[in-house]
TrEMBL record:
The keyword Hydrolase applies. One of its GO terms (molecular function) is hydrolase activity. InterPro entries: AB_hydrolase_1, AB_hydrolase_fold, Epox_hydrolase-like. Pfam families: Abhydrolase_1. This is Alpha/beta hydrolase. Gene3D superfamilies: alpha/beta hydrolase. It comes from the Bacteria. It comes from Kribbella albertanoniae. Keywords: Hydrolase. Residues 28-243 form the AB hydrolase-1 domain.
Amino acid sequence: MELQGVSHRFVDLPGVRLHVAEAGSGEAVVLLHGFPQQWWEWRDVIPALAQHYRVICPDLRGFGESSAPATGYDRESLLADLIGLLDALELDRVHLLTHDWSGILGTLLCLRHPERVRDHLMLAIPPLGAKPDAAMFGRMMRHGWFNLVLPWPGLGPWALRRTGLAKTMLRDHSVGMPDDLVELFASQFQDPARAVAGSALYRQFIQREGMRLMRGEYPAAQLTTPTRVLIGAEDRVVRADANSHEIPGASHFIVDDRPDAVVEHAREFFN
């Protein structure tokens, strides 16, 4: 996958080798992808942001061209990856743009190391302090049933490799994502190590930390980093509230559905 103006490098960290796509110059903006995607999620956002910023898009542990070790998918390891990457790239303080599960990881970074993040634009995750209700849990069970499948050792990797589960997630939670992109994002799980990594991420981080977030165990009062949340108007699970911005014409995969809206909010918020 090539994008004009984008260069690539690999950063070796303890236990993992991360692939990083970069473009532009200026203040650094770090873009963290969601599941089941990788850095190419940001293909329609990078050129616009690179006009004003140094844009940095890593493939997180287990995804894209980064290595997929058997371990390291818990919050402490993933946070260490992120801090290690910032240190390796000599980035003292960054703007942060995250989607899906990486929004929780970004929030952890803001809570633990607020001095490293200027501001955080978070996509498709409820804002810190939101109070999920029974209706949201009902929508999650109806439309996010894969959360009950993916965490299981054996079953989760099998579902990713053999049943096209990743394709179902991409199609059902986007507004008409083209088939070629669905195939591209889902194809990485044909690698057995990445299928195992995807399941481990769900088991050790996404499901566990998502429940902590919804139970209010993340200390919202301690969050000092300016944070903005975007929620797709057609998201099947999460609904926008007074503390978030609703994006028309978008579902969960906001970056693919409405990259123009993501760029507009990023430019305004980061300034």
